[in-house]
Inverse folding.
């Protein structure tokens, strides 16, 4: 490896918070394989308490041992080191909980939709109320606007049932609640304030719940401000143990473009048998799989041309066979996506044993999409991300190249799939897509593009894909980012990113 070996060693040990004494020089490490040396240091130091600093004398002792074993270090020896891989995560107990949402179906009928939207409205109103105590002129409901005189300052909460641009170039929205509906106008004015408000109004999407402040001008409200439900600043408590959570999604097993060799390398890496950063591999206690485990069958016209496995059960069998290689101390939480062979309407139920077979290991958890998990104290909201399509289409400035922006818009709206009809939903009495509990990490897949960001203290992660660029993506101009792995290091509240491409 080119470069400064001291720097390389320091970098390799930094994730494990092991420092290297300042008197260690380049010359001390000349001709030494830093990967092998780092593995030896990790073996020796990981179990130690307190400040971990590799002193020059300790280093010389270890170098002597390494040299005695063989000089230079041959490949077989490196392999032997890896076989001796010891994982910190194997020595600690799993600590997780899964928040199960009530998802009692009421059937697809008018009553079902009425109760679904009423539930959404009530819960979003509570969220807006709890977040924005200081909003001026808040009226109880839309019906109460009838008693408000023209010119009065009012704030109303409603669900957007329509949004149009009027012939004068203004934006008009219609909001409703269980008591009625009202029209709100956003003027296309020339002042800086009017322009800023108009830009915000362009971001309003159908079926979302928001609060608008404005002046009564019956039968309209002339808007002055928009208030989205939004999230408060999130402060995550530190996790004591040095555990890692890995995020993957969109494997698309069964597709000719599934990058099987790379995925196999990821599994080998988890076992300390591939690549570097084995210190990080050894920390991984949890893996969240964000859907599109397989490519599916008949998901789009002529899909069979793109498949290497034409049988859905065989696609899932390959997945289950592959994850057999994942160490059994790692807990996997698997949600489905729109390519999986399960009900498409969201929330989606967990993959069934009819599809994946009997699960013999208790470290594999099949869960609904979306799911809310707490992993070693870290709250993770996992959603496949199908609604990203309609959000990217509807809000100016968003793109598939930057899914972070779209994920932030969903957090601001406190809803995973606000646009009804953008993707199919189950009209259950409780809207399971409302984000009522703010997570530490919001993770999605679907768009096959990695991103990592933060909004109000919530980490935003798109876990990308393990499928190469498809013909469809070439036509659409989408450039995926396959085989990039993100691992959250809970103790340090940071992400590490590894490339298996
Ligand atoms: Fe996908």
């Amino acid at each position: 490896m080119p470069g400064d070996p001291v720097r390389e060693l320091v970098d390799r040990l930094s994730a494990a918070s092991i420092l290297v004494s300042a008197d260690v020089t380049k010359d001390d490490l000349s001709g030494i394989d830093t990967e092998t040396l780092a593995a030896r240091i990790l073996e020796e130091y990981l179990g130690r308490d307190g400040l971990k600093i590799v002193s020059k004398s300790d280093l010389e002792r270890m170098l002597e041992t390494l040299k005695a074993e063989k000089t230079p270090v041959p490949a077989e020896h490196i392999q032997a080191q890896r076989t001796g891989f010891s994982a910190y995560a194997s020595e600690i107990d799993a600590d997780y909980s899964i928040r199960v949402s009530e998802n009692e179906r009421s059937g697809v009928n008018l009553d079902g939709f009425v109760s679904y939207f009423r539930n959404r409205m009530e819960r979003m109103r509570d969220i807006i109320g709890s977040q924005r105590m200081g909003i001026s002129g808040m009226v109880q409901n839309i019906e109460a606007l009838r008693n408000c005189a023209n010119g009065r300052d009012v704030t109303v909460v409603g669900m957007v049932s329509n949004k149009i641009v009027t012939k004068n170039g203004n934006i008009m929205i219609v909001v409703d609640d269980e008591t009625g509906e009202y029209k709100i106008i956003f003027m296309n004015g020339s002042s800086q304030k009017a322009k800023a408000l108009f830009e915000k109004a362009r971001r309003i999407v159908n079926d979302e719940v928001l609060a608008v402040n404005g002046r009564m001008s019956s039968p309209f409200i002339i808007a002055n401000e928009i208030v989205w439900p939004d999230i408060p600043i999130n402060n995550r408590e530190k996790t004591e143990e040095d555990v890692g959570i890995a995020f993957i999604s969109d494997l698309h097993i069964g597709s000719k473009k599934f990058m099987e060799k790379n995925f196999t390398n990821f599994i080998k890496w988890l076992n300390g048998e591939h690549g570097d950063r084995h210190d990080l591999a050894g920390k991984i206690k949890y893996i969240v799989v964000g859907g599109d485990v397989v490519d599916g069958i008949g998901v789009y016209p002529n899909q069979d041309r793109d498949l290497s496995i034409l049988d859905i059960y065989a696609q899932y069998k390959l997945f289950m066979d592959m994850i057999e290689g994942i160490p059994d101390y790692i807990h996997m939480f698997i949600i489905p996506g729109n390519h999986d062979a399960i009900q498409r309407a969201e929330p989606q139920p967990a993959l069934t044993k009819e599809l994946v077979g009997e699960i013999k290991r208790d470290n594999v958890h099949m869960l609904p999409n979306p799911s809310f998990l707490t992993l070693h104290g870290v709250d993770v909201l996992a959603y496949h991300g199908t609604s990203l399509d309609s959000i990217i289409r509807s809000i100016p400035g968003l793109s598939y190249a930057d899914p972070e922006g779209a994920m932030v818009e969903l957090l601001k709206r406190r809803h995973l799939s606000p646009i009804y009809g953008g993707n199919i939903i189950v009209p259950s009495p409780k809207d399971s897509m409302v984000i009522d509990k703010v997570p530490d990490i919001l993770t999605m897949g679907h768009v096959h593009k990695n991103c990592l960001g933060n909004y109000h203290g919530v980490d935003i992660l798109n876990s990308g894909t393990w499928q190469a660029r498809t013909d469809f993506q070439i036509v659409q101009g989408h450039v995926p980012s396959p085989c990039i792995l993100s691992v959250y290091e809970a103790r340090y509240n940071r992400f590490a990113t590894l490339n298996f491409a």
User: Anything to note?
Assistant: Residues 137 and 154 are 4 Å apart (CA to CA). The chain has three domains: 5-84, 132-227, 240-499. The pocket of fe (ii) ion is lined by residues 250, 252, 292, 337, 339, 446, 448 (CB under 6 Å).
